[in-house]
Design a protein that fits this description.
Radius of gyration of chain A: 21 Å
Number of helices of chain A: 6
Structural class of chain A: alpha+beta
Largest interface: A-B, 36 and 45 residues
Order of helices and strands of chain B: HHHHHHHH
Largest sheet of chain A: 10 strands, mixed
Order of helices and strands of chain A: HHHEEHEEEEEHEEEH
Distance between the termini of chain B: 51 Å
Oligomer: heterodimer
CATH architecture of the largest domain in chain B: Orthogonal Bundle
Largest sheet of chain B: none
Helix content of chain A: 25-40%
CATH class of the largest domain in chain B: Mainly Alpha
Number of domains of chain B: 2
Helix content of chain B: 55-70%
Number of strands of chain A: 10
Number of domains of chain A: 1
Structural class of chain B: mainly alpha
Chain lengths: 260, 187
């Protein structure tokens, strides 16, 4: 018969060995901390923030993916809309992208390659719903798609696709291509820690619409965000990139490739 | 380090104090989440969700001196919820996780590691509430009273789960020769 203390010792040893062998780096911790602070900040800021458009959600998501490195996006609640996705749902095999159509309930066009060299990296479903001022869910939920594209020479480009057309497309310039209006917009973003207080100068830029502030990072970071958006067959597409010197040309070319 | 003081600061909305608490408890809490869920990727989500919940519910902390127990209660509950959602009463095949290091180079270590692997499979095949009790008792070195508070159950229930889990482990272990050299009565 095995003695009880012998079993207990084995259990203790086994659990400790398994736990000890889990790889937990400082980088893991930093990513986790950033995501947690971002989500908490989003909860706490939601009543003070103006209604965000889908474009902004896409921007914030891109920011998390880029700043947070890899794809450790967890959740983000923004005034007016709530969205979340999970790393577990990421699809890295392009052949499986069509599986996402079952989740969205609509067909969409996601190229594997673009003529400018960008290629498919991964796609992930984003679960969204509207919320009221008290943070309660309002109406039906829906599923959007977030896709990341990579290029050896230039920063990543993200593509967001949704059937939710509640928010207007924001445009600094536009161009009509094959009957579809492609809207281009340019924004300066400042990502700041949750407790950061804006200077008078920064607040003036925010008030004039020249600067957008996003809370949740560990340090203050500035980024130029450019995107193009269009609606085709009642589906909204938004292409976004950060600090990309060739953004306007790249995004317009990619938009046209998708519209073709 | 005065944890109670840091917890009180967090309750008073100090985000730096919260960040400090995350840093202090991250590894331990992550490992508990991993041992309960058996999946590294799930553990990442569990731990994020648990810490978010921890901060958002900070005003409900009644005993700052028992913060660790309060945090593990959230981690445990979140892990259970994930296991339930994923219907993971845990497939043993999932335990070979890419995140685990493989640095045992000597034959003795390998044999010992294999023995531990067998035992780990047995633990992971236990019903989730028994498994949780085993993890909190043997990995966290917690007493049955604290475990009862974490799992929101009676201490008698904890003892019963511990007893049943140990018996199940014992029976299974005795089928594995390297660990158990003597036969155990079949009843």
């Amino acid at each position: 018969m095995i003695k009880r203390n012998e079993i207990e010792q084995k259990i203790n040893e086994t659990l400790n060995e398994r736990a000890k062998n889990i790889s937990l780096s400082d980088e893991h911790f930093e990513i986790m901390k950033r995501n947690v602070n971002y989500s908490i900040n989003s909860f706490e800021e939601e009543k003070n923030m103006k209604k965000f458009s889908f474009k902004n959600i896409a921007i914030v998501m891109s920011a998390i993916c880029i700043i947070g490195s890899v794809t450790a996006i967890a959740s983000g609640i923004i005034s007016g809309s709530e969205s979340h996705s999970s790393r577990k749902d990421e699809i890295k095999d392009y052949k499986r992208v069509s599986e996402l159509e079952e989740k969205t309930g609509f067909e969409f066009n996601i190229p594997e390659f673009f003529e400018n060299g960008y290629k498919f990296d991964y796609a992930v479903p984003v679960y969204s719903n509207n919320i009221d001022e008290d943070g309660k869910k309002v109406g039906d939920s829906w599923v959007d798609i977030f896709v990341n594209y990579k290029n050896e020479k230039y920063p990543d480009v993200s593509l967001s696709i949704t059937k939710n057309l509640d928010d207007e497309l924001i445009s600094d310039e536009n161009e009509i291509y094959e009957g579809v209006t492609i809207n281009y917009s340019y924004n300066k973003y400042m990502f700041v820690p949750p407790t950061y207080e804006l200077t008078a100068e920064e607040q003036a830029l925010v008030d004039s619409g020249e600067l957008v502030v996003s809370y949740g990072t560990d340090t203050v970071e500035y980024k130029v965000v450019e995107n193009v958006s269009w609606i085709k067959d009642d589906i909204k597409y938004v292409l976004t990139t950060f600090d990309n010197d060739m953004a306007k040309d790249i995004l317009n070319d990619m938009a046209k490739d998708i519209i073709k | 380090m005065d944890i109670e003081f840091i917890v009180k600061r967090m309750i008073d909305d100090d985000r730096e104090a919260f960040n400090s608490l995350m840093e202090i408890y991250y590894k331990k809490a992550f490992r508990i989440a991993y041992l309960i869920s058996g999946k590294y990727a799930d553990s990442e989500d569990i731990i994020q969700e648990a810490f978010i919940s921890c901060y958002l519910n900070r005003k409900k902390i009644r005993e700052p001196e028992h913060f660790e127990r309060w945090l593990y209660k959230i981690v445990t509950r979140t892990a259970w919820s994930y296991c339930k959602k994923s219907k993971k009463e845990q497939p043993v095949d999932y335990i070979f996780d890419e995140s685990l290091k493989c640095d045992n180079s000597f034959i003795d270590d390998i044999i010992k590691s294999q023995e531990n692997m067998e035992l780990y499979k047995i633990i992971m095949s236990l019903p989730i509430k028994q498994r949780t009790v085993i993890i909190l008792y043997y990995y966290n070195n917690m007493g049955t009273k604290d475990i009862a508070k974490i799992t929101s159950s009676f201490e008698g229930t904890v003892k019963s789960r511990l007893f049943s889990a140990r018996n199940s482990i014992k029976k299974e272990l005795c089928k594995k020769k390297p660990i158990c050299k003597k036969e155990v009565p079949s009843n």
